[in-house]
Structure formats: C-alpha cells, structure tokens
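Q: What residues go here?
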C-alpha cells in the first residue's frame, strides 16, 4: 500500500485525527525521539514495494485516468461527489484508493475555477507530500498549485492544515489566488500575514480548514498558545518563564496536525540557526544612559590591540590589554560598571553593535525605528528585536528612541517546533545538499521529482574580480548590453546597501531600473509582476529569490528570456540556485551568470588579507589559471560557511534538548 496511516506514530491513524477524537482539543506530536532502529525501519518501510518514482508515477497515472468521468459531471453532481468523498476520507482515512479520487477531484476543481490542471509531476509531488515526504521539484514547476492536492485532501478528511511559507506576501498571495479551488470544494481558507496584529483575525484564519501562514508567525502563535494553555491549567512543560498573572485566553491554533512547508530547505534549515523567543517589554530605566556610556567607551578601544572581531562566528573577544583598558576607562563610573564581568559583557555588546551589525545590511532605520532585516528573505521584521539589550544598544547607536528591554516568556527552536506536527510534508527546488539533515532532524525523506519539460536555462559562467568597484562596473556594462537587446534582467544582491549602491551606479549611467529591497517592500507585487517585461531591469535582494514567479512579457521568450546576474555571494549554494531559478521556468528560455568580487563581505570575513591580496593581484592580470583559482577559493568559502551553519544548527538542537532537561521542573519533561 502506497499510503499508510496518517501519523508517524503507528498507533495514530488518520481517522483518529478527526475533531473530537482521542488526541484531545490541541493535537500535537510528542517530540520524543524514536530509536535509530525504529527510524531505520520507517525508512525501509517507505522503500518497500518498488522504486519510489515508479510508484508515484503509477499513482499520478491513476489520478489522470479519473479525469474524463469527472469532466462529464455538472456542478451539482460534482458537489454531491465532493460530499461523498469527504465522508469516505473521514471514515476510511488516507487510503490510497480514496486519495486517487480525491486528487482527481482537486484537479478538476482547479480546472473549473482557475483554468489550471495539475500536471503529472505536480500529482507526483502532491502524493509525496501527503505521505509525509519532501518533494524536490525544480523552480518553476508549480509548487504552489501542487500544495493544493494534499491540503484539500487532508482538509476534506477533517484534518487542520497549515501551508507554511517564508513570508507574509507569499502566504497572502497564495491564499487569495487559490481560494476558488477551496471554495468549490466547500473548504475555507485563511491567511496569517506579517503585521496582522488582530488576535481575533488570526484565530479566525487558523480556524479555517486550510491556513496559509509564515514560519515565524505559526511558531510564535504556538508559543502564545502554550502560555495560554499553561495559564489555564493545561500542559506546560516547555522552555518558558510562566506568566502567572496572565489571564487565560482561547488558543489561536487548533493544534499541529498537518504542516506543508513550502521552500522547506529555507524554513527547516536556513532559519533553524536561531531560537525563537517570545518576549514582552519590561521597564528598563537607565538602559539608554548605560548603552550610551558603553558605546562611548568602545569608541576609545583599538581593534587588534584591545579586541578581536570574528566576523565568521560573529563574536567579540577582549584581549588582556583590552580588559585592562576597560577597567581604566570605567574606574570613575558607578552602578553596573563596578562589576568587572558585567562591564566586559557590556563592552563586547557595544563592539558587536558597532562592528558586526551594519545599517542597511543587518537592519534599516525607518520612521525612527530600528527594523531587523531577515538575511534569508531580505525582508524587514518590524516586530522582531535582538535580545539581551543588543537591540537597545543599536537604537542608541542610531539615535532612535530606545524601546524597553525584553523579558523571555517562552522559547523554542525550529527543529523542536516542526517535529511536533503529527505529519510534516514539504516541497522545495533546492534540497540536495541537506537531505541528510532533513531526515536526521525531522524524519523527512526527500524524493526528486523530474521536471515536466526539458530545462532551457543556460549557465554563462562565473567571473571573480579583484575589487568591488571593478565588479560593479562589469555588472553595469552587462546590464546595458542585455537591456539594449530588449531582454529583461534581474540582478540579485545580498544586502539592501548593495542594491542601493548598484541602483546609484545605474542611475548615473542613465539606465532605467526598479529596486526591490526591504525599504521598497510595499511595491513588491508590482515590481515582480513587471520584472519579465522587455527592456526591464530589476535589482533585488533575496526578496526575489524564493517563491516568486516572474512571467515573461510578450516576445521576450524569442529574445532569450530573462537573464539573471548574481552579483554577490550567498551563504549557501542552495540560495544561489533559487536566484538562478527565476529564469528558465516551465521550459522557457533563460540564462544566468555570476559576477563576484574578492571584496565581497563573505570572502573578506573568510579569507586572510594576505591570501586575498595575492589572489586580487593575480586575478587583475586576466590569467585563466588564477581566475580559476579565485573561483575555487570562493567556492571553498561558501562550502565552509555551509558547514559552519550546519554545526550551529546541531549545537542549537543539543542546547535546546539540554535546556529542556534542565527546566523539566516547570512541567513534564518533553
């Protein structure tokens, strides 16, 4: 049988997940780890019965065979068929025979409402997702539509579904576009987007059969529910400082039943380096003055002699001379400065605020407020803040109004959170490098779904320049060449500052263009909607790297399609491939090239100044050998960063597990 019971736990069937079943009002999976032997058996169970792709192809063919009979039905007959199928799903569970007919029904609903009909590769991807796997589908293969197959099927079975993506724009866009499919099947759909602060509106969205939400929103709302349930006498038992004075309130979610994670490698891997901390503001009188004093003292310290900044590990280490110098500078200060350990911590934080956190790279200042920029999505996060006084230190540095300190109420890691779903499925175009981590942490097996049409995306190579100035000049030259031919061009940068630097250069050169970054995020839909038109030049941060479908304008395919230029190095090869994947989608022509500099911030942080200077001198000679050596060095930098991030995620997971054990006195140990 292709599809077994719904939950990973053998004792939990899909039928048991119906409302009012034994799992209780807030179902979620115990995150106790299974033994390696049990996990190996699960893996082998999924491998039995022949080749994975052959089974998925066979399933898709059976779904397609149902199409003629459904097309012959009028709308009233299709409604009766939907009601009958809903009853079967809720009584029989997610059995293969019923799933075939359910997928066929969703496919027919999409054809009637939106004029879209799922391709066989999308049916294969949907089958993998509802089985609790990760479908690796090429960029442009229609993963947004693919998700409707498992989402509608599970919702018809009475299972609450969360479709989780990387940002609120995509969540709201997908829910709005796909709403007709859900409505014709009698299902409700809601969206929880960034900046949606109305708690009742969020609760209504989660009460829908299918909810589109961001990874951060659903995780933080889960933490809020944990506090509410603990306050109401429910089970606590997680990393929290219980707020005993808070009045009980209704929960936002209906549990963690079925999560479909779009851009799964970004959500489950890239975002997993940092724990999620739910906090509240507390009185911090005197904090502004202390932060100002710390910044003034830090300005009197000398780099290299008094402290060392490790940009790769993003930390600061004081030297013996630096500690002595700090003691001298703080001798006349009172209060918190009299404690040697605390003043050194404050000085390290002040150095971090000035040396490691850069305006228009890690954050922007808008309307007198410091807003963090998400490195993975390029979007600002106005409701997020750094902890332990760092955010307030940066506010003082930028001359902004200082907000209160944050008191931790609850915390959880992404690894811990997503393992609590009774079933987790996902989809992405770039999972190859992290399939082992996805399996070991989340129990997600990955299956590669072949593209529907031959890929016509052409790689035009990679060039490494000695300096950033020469690199930006080369980018401008290429943009003018391509724009002159009528082809649209998308230039990807890694930071807001870089996108604006390139914009200034193109403006000076008289090249018309559009910019998409955290400062212009309100114009995102319009900029993306026109990025594929002839003669269009678009500069974008990672905001345009995932989930964006750039449609080609009239006549653009004949010119060669969209051309993508990667102008800076990303922390992972997968992120680069997402940018390349904006062109050459669904069999369309397209091309991409990479133009990098040895002054790229990532390269500067990773390579020694001596090696970088030597490479820069030789690259400038235009020698093919040294050009290849520079490309090799840059590739090794990127791989090294990927390994470092993987270690950081493993370290965080171990730390969270140790913390859970330590704080087990707060409730049941989980």
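A:
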């Amino acid at each position: 049988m292709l599809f077994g019971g719904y939950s990973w736990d053998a004792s939990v069937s899909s039928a048991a997940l119906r409302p009012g079943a034994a799992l209780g009002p807030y179902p979620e999976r115990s995150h106790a780890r299974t033994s390696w032997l049990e996990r190996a058996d699960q893996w082998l169970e999924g491998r039995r019965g022949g080749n994975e792709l052959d089974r998925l192809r066979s399933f898709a063919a059976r779904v397609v065979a149902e199409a003629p009979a459904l097309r012959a039905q009028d709308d009233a007959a299709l409604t009766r068929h939907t009601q009958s199928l809903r009853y079967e799903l809720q009584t029989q569970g997610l059995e293969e025979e019923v799933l075939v007919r359910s997928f066929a029904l969703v496919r027919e609903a999409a054809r009637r409402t939106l004029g879209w009909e799922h391709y066989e590769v999308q049916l294969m991807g949907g089958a993998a997702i509802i089985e609790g796997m990760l479908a690796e589908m090429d960029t442009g293969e229609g993963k947004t539509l693919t998700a409707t197959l498992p989402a509608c099927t599970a919702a018809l079975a009475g299972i609450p579904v969360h479709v989780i993506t990387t940002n609120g724009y995509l969540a709201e866009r997908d829910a709005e576009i796909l709403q007709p499919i859900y409505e014709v099947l009698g299902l409700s759909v809601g969206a929880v987007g960034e900046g949606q602060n109305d708690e009742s509106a969020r609760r209504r969205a989660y009460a829908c059969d299918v909810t589109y939400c961001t990874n951060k929103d659903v995780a933080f709302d889960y933490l809020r529910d944990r506090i509410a349930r603990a306050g109401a006498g429910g089970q606590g038992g997680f990393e929290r400082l219980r707020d005993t004075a808070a009045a009980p309130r209704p929960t936002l979610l209906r549990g963690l039943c079925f999560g479909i994670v779009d851009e799964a490698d970004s959500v489950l891997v890239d975002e997993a380096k940092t724990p999620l901390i739910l906090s509240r503001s507390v009185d911090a009188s005197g904090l502004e003055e202390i932060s100002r004093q710390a910044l003034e003292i830090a300005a009197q310290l000398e780099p290299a002699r008094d402290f060392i900044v490790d940009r790769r590990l993003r930390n600061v280490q004081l030297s013996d001379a630096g500690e002595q110098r700090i003691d001298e500078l703080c001798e006349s200060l009172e209060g918190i400065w009299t404690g040697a350990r605390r003043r050194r911590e404050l000085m390290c934080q002040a150095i971090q605020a000035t040396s490691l956190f850069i305006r228009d790279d890690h954050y922007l200042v808008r309307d007198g407020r410091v807003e963090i920029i998400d490195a993975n999505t390029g979007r600002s996060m106005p409701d997020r803040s750094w902890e332990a006084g760092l955010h307030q230190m940066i506010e003082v540095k930028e001359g902004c109004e200082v907000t209160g300190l944050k008191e931790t109420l609850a915390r959880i890691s992404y690894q811990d959170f997503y393992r609590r779903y009774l079933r987790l499925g996902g989809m992405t175009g770039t999972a190859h490098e992290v399939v082992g981590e996805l399996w070991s942490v989340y129990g997600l097996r990955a299956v590669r779904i072949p593209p529907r049409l031959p890929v016509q995306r052409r790689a035009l190579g990679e060039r490494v320049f000695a300096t950033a100035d020469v690199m930006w000049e080369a980018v401008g030259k290429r943009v003018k060449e391509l724009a002159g031919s009528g082809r649209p061009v998308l230039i990807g940068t890694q930071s807001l500052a870089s996108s604006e630097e390139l914009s200034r250069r193109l403006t000076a050169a008289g090249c018309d263009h559009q910019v998409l970054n955290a400062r212009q995020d309100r114009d995102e839909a319009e900029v993306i909607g026109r990025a594929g038109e002839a003669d269009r030049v678009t500069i974008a941060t990672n905001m345009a790297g995932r989930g964006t479908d750039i449609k080609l304008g009239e006549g653009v395919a004949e010119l060669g399609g969209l051309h993508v230029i990667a102008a800076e190095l990303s922390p992972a090869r997968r992120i680069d491939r997402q940018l390349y994947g904006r062109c050459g989608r669904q069999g369309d022509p397209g091309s991409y090239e990479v133009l990098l500099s040895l002054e790229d911030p990532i390269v500067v942080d990773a390579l020694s100044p001596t090696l970088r200077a030597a490479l820069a001198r030789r690259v400038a000679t235009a020698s093919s050998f040294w050009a290849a050596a520079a490309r090799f060095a840059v590739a090794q930098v990127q791989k090294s960063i990927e390994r470092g991030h993987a270690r950081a995620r493993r370290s965080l997971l171990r730390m969270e597990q140790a913390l859970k054990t330590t704080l087990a006195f707060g409730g049941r140990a989980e």
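A: Context that may help when evaluating the design: The CA atoms of residues 392 and 403 lie 6 Å apart. Confidence is low (pLDDT under 50) at residues 1-22, 46-50, 234-247, 665-670.
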